[in-house]
Design brief:
Layout: E1 16-17, E2 20-23, E3 26-29, E4 52-53, E5 71-73, E6 78-80, H1 87-98, E7 105-106, H2 115-123, H3 125-137, H4 155-168, H5 170-183
Antiparallel strand pairs: 1-2, 2-3, 4-7, 5-6
Length: 198
């Protein structure tokens, strides 16, 4: 692995070590080149974080079936709406990106995001909510175009979670993420989190 392009969030050592992902009985040899999405091609809808989908992912739209709760797609491409928080989620996201045939995902978001860029993304959250609500209204109750049955959810359930996440969870996450960017470590209990400046 290229040390100059370190992983954005240090992965749990018990599931990722020396380029090998081992989780749930699955072993995958990983190479940083498997995740060749570039920051210049990042799709703007990705929530700030280590992982992101790019504008070149216009036809694949398959990774969201392997990472329930993290990836969603619009008419253009897939993007992250929620970053992984647990070991299992981390493994699901890595596997989903690794399976992408066109190598359209990036994993070095922390090398590029800044508190200012996070604030600029947050300032556009209304556009994301409007898109999700419009899609919700135009979607039948039993439609499943975002995720496969592995996710066990309909499109409306996915969109409802997405809207709820932006309206009720994203601000706290982004404040913690800005702390990580500024301090170089995750926030701990008792740490004062910075505000999102707009």
């Amino acid at each position: 692995m290229n040390d100059s392009k370190r992983w954005a969030i240090p992965p749990p050592e018990e599931i990722f070590c020396e380029g090998i992902l081992c989780f749930k009985g699955i072993t995958i040899e990983l190479n940083r080149d498997d995740f060749s999405g570039t920051w210049s091609e990042k799709y703007w809808k990705n929530i700030p974080g280590p992982f992101f989908g790019t504008n070149v992912n216009m036809m694949s739209l398959m990774a969201s079936s392997d990472a329930p709760g993290h990836l969603i797609h619009d008419a253009k491409c897939e993007f992250y709406w929620k970053p992984p928080c647990t070991e299992e989620e981390y493994a699901d996201c890595i596997t989903a990106m690794w399976c992408d045939e066109i190598d359209s995902y990036g994993v070095d978001g922390n090398d590029h995001w800044s508190p200012q860029l996070v604030a600029e993304w947050w300032d556009r959250r209304g556009e994301l909510i409007d898109w999700a609500k419009d899609r919700y209204r135009c979607t039948s109750e039993d439609a499943r175009t975002f995720w496969t049955d592995k996710g066990g959810m309909t499109d409306r359930q996915v969109l409802s979670q997405y809207i709820d996440s932006i309206e009720n969870e994203a601000e706290d996450y982004l404040r913690s993420y800005i702390f990580l960017l500024l301090e170089g470590r995750p926030a701990r209990i008792g740490d004062s989190l910075p505000r999102i400046k707009e």
